């Protein structure tokens, strides 16, 4: 369990924001786990025929858009270093930009610029090109063609307040190369994966400055919807 402390003279509201973001992450992840359990249970209809009359109909769309996160160094065990008599912390724990649009279509490409940290990330959709989150000129650019595969999540490593490494996880169990962290820093890591039967459709993020004046994503939240959309 991550713990925090601050000078006794600090405002009593110092930790309200990050506690609220911890609660948001826990609720989002619990909601996602419930949807995954429901989806797995009702998938037995595909192999056990003749029993559907004894069970209610199940439509994954009842859960709507689902979220995983937010994730940041300050929200992970071992991330951040704060103590008595240190400067009042300015936590990086909530997103301030939502990339979602109902008209985007599926994710077709992910653009990553990286070196020691993730300088920038960008989702390219069927119907639009979203904004680049971070430094458009930082690091080396990689254009990752999703190729029709469904995105299941991201394996992320945070350091010095920003996203330092990232790996794309696909629903079929495969993954992309790992990007960033070329200096081999010690990272606070997390594998954020979606519920059974769901796919990534977008993300939310916040950008901040890191070491050596680098600039890139510092907080990440993933957004999901059912793989098969209900018919009108």
Automatic annotation (TrEMBL):
Superkingdom field: Eukaryota
Protein name: Uncharacterized protein
Organism: Ceratopteris richardii
